[in-house]
Amino acid sequence: xxxxxxxxxxxxxxxxxxxxxxxxxxxxxxxxxxxxxxxxxxxxxxxxxxxxxxxxxxxxxxxxxxxxxxxxxxxxxxxxxxxxxxxxxxxxxxxxxxxxxxxxxxxxxxxxxxxxxxxxxxxxxxxxxxxxxxxxxxxxxxxxxxxxxxxxxxxxxxxxxxxxxxxxxxxxxxxxxxxxxxxxxxxxxxxxxxxxxxxxxxxxxxxxxxxxxxxxxxxxxxxxxxxxxxxxxxxxxxxxxxxxxxxxxxxxxxxxxxxxxxxxxxxxxxxxxxxxxxxxxxxxxxxxxxxxxxxxxxxxxxxxxxxxxxxxxxxxxxxxxxxxxxxxxxxxxxxxxxxxxxxxxxxxxxxxxxxxxxxxxxxxxxxxxxxxxxxxxxxxxxxxxxxxxxxxxxxxxxxxxxxxxxxxxxxxxxxxxxxxxxxxxxxxxxxxxxxxxxxxxxxxxxxxxxxxxxxxxxxxxxxxxxxxxxxxxxxxxxxxxxxxxxxxxxxxxxxxxxxxxxxxxxxxxxxxxxxxxxxxxxxxxxxxxxxxxxxxxxxxxxxxxxxxxxxxxxxxxxxxxxxxxxxxxxxxxxxxxxxxxxxxxxxxxxxxxxxxxxxxxxxxxxxxxxxxxxxxxxxxxxxxxxxxxxxxxxxxxxxxxxxxxxxxxxxxxxxxxxxxxxxxxxxxxxxxxxxxxxxxxxxxxxxxxxxxxxxxxxxxxxxxxxxx
Length: 708
Prior knowledge:
By secondary structure, the chain is α+β, with helices and mostly antiparallel strands. Helices cover about 20% and strands about 35% of the residues.
């Protein structure tokens, strides 16, 4: 197709606008896009969608092929492993042709009754539905669940539903047996809802105008919301508030936290109108996590080390902590779960999630024995505790998976090590994990840091510099990019792509120090690590002319920054809901997330130094007159976390300045008009969204045909 025959991209309107901070004046002709209700913005986004569709119309057959590949590998009618809690087995099931899961339960005659073997596609005898997502979503383009809890007497269920994608939920309390709505007085609230032990009261979280969870309220079920009682309000704009309960609903818990500091409050769940107690009042930089352990507390905290240690405290003196276990070299303690006969510690070790078991030992000062490692299958296996709500559990649900091994759920006796496989994620068709390989390599950065990378590929792909490659990264918030199995990823691997995860600094793969070495003024380490990995791959594992890069949200910031610095390393880039106008957002404390994010990125509003380092890397501010690779930016109109404004402005500026040949390296923006931060909510819709994006990438890499 000649240039004259190509569809022409929209031209974003420009309106004069300037801002000045710390003596630095910036002209931003696209600042007007901050108003998501501006008809001109909606018209622009609609025009961009039409252009993206026209520019990629030739990919319709490939998109349909990828969608059908994903669908053909999924057991569409399926059941999760039942979880025992009280008199019921709880599970979710999916139905072929339906977008959403059904959350349900069936009778559990006795606590020691054998776990039922539920047939995929069947309805268990005596089933009671807690929430049918398909019925709740009917007539709506979006559906998400923000809370789902059953009262301690097992009679009521509360569900929090979002039908817009803005992560604001309406709460409905129903009688499980009859389906009768008992209460629907509460709407426009945040994540989480908890019953008191009697089931007469409901506790919930309210968000402020900047979408910060800042209040917990108590609601007497069946009464008007106007009579609700405010339990706690957090006025420090840096702190977020969360609500939960301890195992077996003994305590209600309010957690407050920033990126570096936390505070926890407890209330016996059988005393809903009683006085909440603070475990330890906040101290700047002190971060701790609390587990109720029968008559005491277990606490993972960073009081003595940034990688955290394990301690205990009495319920009478919750702020006095007694040491149990210090972390070892290369370890980062994350949290702890207490059961009648043992305690399980969750941690990171060697760049991967791990577990330790501490048996009960009444004779010791901590009442716990020496920690035992939990065995793991495979070099790149992610291990985690499943849902284990009962304190008396002797066999725990544990999951493990890798990039090429589907998720497996086991019932494990932590004391003996005996385990029983309960379910392995079914993958239909001719899938065989032996056709694929996964491995860990280490890449040296210019500053001498060794960056771990995970490499996944078909067994026959050799590191001879001829294969197409797909490099992904995140690198923020101490969130690790751990191994996980993806049915959809098989469509990339089966077309010969080498799939690589760069575990760059700013993430949590290698502990708290790894995170701290990729934030504030050190944020550029995240970008340098990613470029070093790209250079390592090009000419080794990957053809240097056929490397794609991908990242979403804060990972989209990574992609935007890397493209400004090293656009020649990549043939195509996929930026999902990308946080690319970071400096502008961090200058506006009225936006969702901003004030709380200052401890992640810095406060450019108040600090000249923070303004300087963010101005030096913020993707939107640093778009240059240079050739960029082909780019697909995706976003959602109702995204609260990264406003649609950011990718819309970024694409407009890229079009204005990039010297790309639009025939070979188009720059596209695709907006979901009824979705949130995670994209479209239904599973079939999500598969089509993935197929749309990956078809664009595969076409650019010249890798549209499956390997034989």
